[in-house]
Design a protein that fits this description.
Layout: H1 2-6, E1 10-12, E2 18-22, E3 44-47, H2 69-82, E4 88-93, H3 95-106, E5 111-117, H4 135-147, H5 149-161, H6 167-179, H7 182-193, E6 207-214, H8 221-230, E7 235-242, H9 246-249, H10 251-258
Parallel strand pairs: 2-3, 2-4, 4-5, 5-6, 6-7
Antiparallel strand pairs: 1-3
Helix pairs in contact: 2-3, 4-5, 4-7, 5-6
Length: 262
């Protein structure tokens, strides 16, 4: 139960099969509020906050453990074991997509299917691989975040969200970023943007669906295609949704894409 409190785990529904929803950087479980309820009639749904986010136990944050995405993947596995998950569906947005990938490799019995929303195994360009950012881009981003957390959030969140014709979406993401502890945000950003999980993709055995948005400045089309090409048997669906957060900007399209897969 301490594990469930640590990650502010919330359960809904009562079906024998389980669907777990994981949020991205600077967010919390509230980002799934337009998508998760649609599956309560068919699944027991699990929502949680990564340690350092939302209403998680901030005292559980360990900078050494969470210096890489493996620490978050280990938390996901601990949650799964506390809930006795087997053959569940994992739905992960942004960086949580790779957290789910790592967890599924470490505990293959836990997740039968993965839904990866805007995933990126590597944000930095590397030879022929196009992640979307140069190393200097990422170092500049991390330095800017460290120097001025609030200013960085106000500038970056609307760009990440996209949909400039709907400024309320960018404002919500900005507010979410600003609520995050600045030190934790800085460390999570480094763990996220410096990660390289390309070599992990071929080890995934779970059925996998990749959802790719258009005009996504964080994970462009070529990144989604790379994930599709390197997870055997995976399926890529291009959404009409614009930006990096379709769970907020186009929830009905996300639901429609997930439903036939699960």
């Amino acid at each position: 139960m301490d594990i469930l409190k640590r990650n502010n785990v919330r359960l809904h529904g009562a079906e024998p099969k389980t669907m777990v929803f994981a949020h991205g950087f600077g967010c919390d479980q509230n980002m799934w509020r337009f998508v998760e309820p649609a599956f309560r009639d068919e699944f027991r749904t699990v929502l949680f906050d990564q340690v350092g986010a939302g209403k998680s136990d901030l005292s559980a944050y360990d900078s050494a453990k969470y210096a890489s995405l493996d620490g978050y993947a280990d938390d996901l596995i601990e949650i799964g074991r506390a809930l006795e998950l087997r053959h569940a569906v994992f739905v992960g947005h942004s960086v949580s997509a790779m957290i789910g990938v790592l967890a599924s490799i470490k505990a293959p019995e836990m997740f039968e299917s993965l839904v990866l929303v805007g995933p990126s195994p590597r944000y930095i360009n590397d030879g022929g691989y196009v992640g979307g950012f140069s190393e200097s881009d990422v170092e500049g981003l991390l330095s800017s975040l460290a120097d001025n957390h609030m200013g960085w959030s106000a500038a970056m969140a609307p760009a990440i969200m996209g949909n400039p014709d709907r400024p309320e979406l960018g404002e919500e993401l900005t507010n979410s970023f600003c609520r995050t502890d600045p030190d934790i945000a800085r460390q999570f950003a480094r763990a996220t943007f410096m990660s390289d999980n390309r070599a992990d993709l071929p080890s995934v055995t779970a059925r996998t669906l990749v959802l790719q948005c258009s005009d996504d400045i964080i994970a462009g089309d070529q990144v989604g295609e790379y994930v599709r090409d390197h997870i055997a048997g995976s399926k890529l669906v291009h959404l009409e949704a614009v930006g990096h957060c379709p769970n907020l900007s186009a929830p009905l399209e996300v639901i429609a894409a997930i439903r036939p897969f699960v």
